[in-house]
Amino acid sequence: MPAGYSQRLGALVAERNVALREAAERYWSDLSRHEAARLLAVSMRRYAGTAWRYEQHAIISPYPEGSLKDCLWRAMKARARLLSTRQLERVLVGTDDHLSNDPV
Fold first, then answer.
1. What are the domain boundaries of the chain?
2. In angstroms, rounded to a whole number, what is the distance separating the alpha carbons of residues 104 and 29?
3. Distance CA 99, CA 96 (A)
4. pTM for this structure?
5. 96 against 73, higher pLDDT
6. Got the DSSP string for 80-100?
């Protein structure tokens, strides 16, 4: 493993989590954490299976800043891993910023 790999990966996970928290706060703040995480998981899966396949090589987000697709693009660009509802619940409360909870 190259030197510094864990720090770099940790920074990417943190960047992804910021984008996911922003999406949940902007679009589902009136829902329970579980329901927001469930909707976020569905949105991530849908985005990953459609537009992401074509947009993953873009340098900047092709969406308006702060839009749901922008948040999903930034999250996937930082760390292109789909998360379960349970993992997303931990991300939303800020307890999933360390690598031990992120499947590599």
1. 5-92
2. 29
3. 8
4. 0.86
5. 73
6. -----HHHHHHHHHT---SGG
